[in-house]
């Protein structure tokens, strides 16, 4: 076993070396601190005031070893009230970090304690207050598994952001005034009938991905046909028509806070194996991850192990995480790992390079625009471990809604906080079907539980376990989850501006 590979692990700006190596002193609870503060970040030579979220070692976020509890005091050293949500974690409700739903805001100068056993995988932390996330109040939260410690591979964390020099309040005001960018209009690509989907399924490589099409025991009324009645609901324009991909223009896209003008260069071993933990922390941008000449294996989504899926390009929706294992070629070289904005050519990324490699300058734009993120990749993902199909104790149906006002977003035309809670009881298997007749896809995020994808755009299958699913524009999705964590849990679109303009409700446990 080559320990040096793991020592090399992370480049500047990702996390402290000390927090990555097993430390016997950490076996018993020891409180760590996370500090919210402001900082000046230079983007393309121009300073911008943004937030920072650093551990006591002065690096972003936290990495915990297997079995280590999340025993953390958050200090708010910034001038604004804030609350940090542990995205991907399923803590007791009062530690979920959602202002006014699970805890009061942490005022400037105050602190708040958290203590729970974290869920392993690639996760992240971010402000759930106002539009602070757009000002980079976000950081990685990596909970290593025993397999990670044992594996002879270098771990690399890449956190993606969309960045604007304008204040997010101005951006939102423009959107509300109807001045949003409606770039990349395309005809509705997500029909309910996807003739190519089954073909993609049989093409799924490596034999490790099998078709779960027939093994579900889901009943008819929770499948997509069950949504048909929604087409008659007021305001719905049917499931076809124009969709658009982006409504906010950005000045830059960041990977670990840097643009491709001056990307982070991560030194790797020739012929070595790396695990790239990608986090899409952008407020309003879906990306396509492009490995260039390299082939990678997706091995986990949202922190949950999947049957490996090999490819060179992978979609990564807002708030999702993706772990990709890559076997590097022998010899010296430099290999960019980039993320291209959906429906655009603008990109960001990092460079994997052997020690003596020459690093060529990278263009800020890819050779060609990416298309819209379709459902093909999502429909091919299978969990690493099969679980038996579950019968639903409760079936919930909602419709993601747009209007009536300009840039109003909602759920069943209810805008947060005038929402109707989705009520559940402890000990149930709940299915939730989401119809999306709106003009945009929505990355829907459930707090307090990970769910399984049970249907997407008319295809029923036992798909990935996740906490965030991109529900396609003019499309539909069904997810299923176990209710074993009582409380009031936020359920919302993770496009920051959609959430700010109402697309949020709660899953509420009732007696
Ligand atoms: Cu949305």
Properties at a glance:
single chain; 511 residues; mainly beta; Immunoglobulin-like; 7-stranded mixed beta sheet; 6-stranded mixed beta sheet; globular
Describe this structure in words.
The protein has 511 residues and is mostly beta strands. Among the domains are: 143 residues, Cupredoxins -  blue copper proteins (Immunoglobulin-like), CATH 2.60.40; 178 residues, Sandwich (Immunoglobulin-like). Helices cover 8% and strands 38% of the residues. The chain contains six helices and 33 strands. The strands form seven sheets. Strands 22, 23, 25, 27, 28, 29 and 31 form a seven-stranded mixed β-sheet that branches. A six-stranded mixed β-sheet has the order 12-9-14-19-16-17. A five-stranded mixed β-sheet has the order 13-21-20-15-18, with no helix packed on it. The chain starts with a helix and ends with a strand. The structure holds copper (II) ion. The site of copper (II) ion has 7 residues, from loops. Copper (II) ion (CU) binds next to loops.
Strand content: 35-45%
Coarse structural class = mainly beta
Question: What do we call the CATH topology of the domain at 188-238 and 383-509?
Answer: Immunoglobulin-like
**Do you know the CATH architecture of the domain at 188-238 and 383-509?**
Sandwich
From the structure provided, what is the oligomeric state, counting identical versus distinct chains?
Answer: single chain
Helical residue percent? Answer: under 10%
CATH level-four homologous superfamily name of the domain at 188-238 and 383-509: Cupredoxins -  blue copper proteins
What's the overall average pLDDT, rounded? 87
CATH class of the domain at 188-238 and 383-509: Mainly Beta
User: What gyration radius follows from the Cα positions, in whole Å?
Assistant: 22 Å
Low-confidence stretches: 1-19, 188-238
What binds here, in terms of ligands, is: copper (II) ion
End-to-end CA span: 53 Å
Largest sheet: 7 strands, mixed
Shape annotation: globular
SS summary, helix count: 6
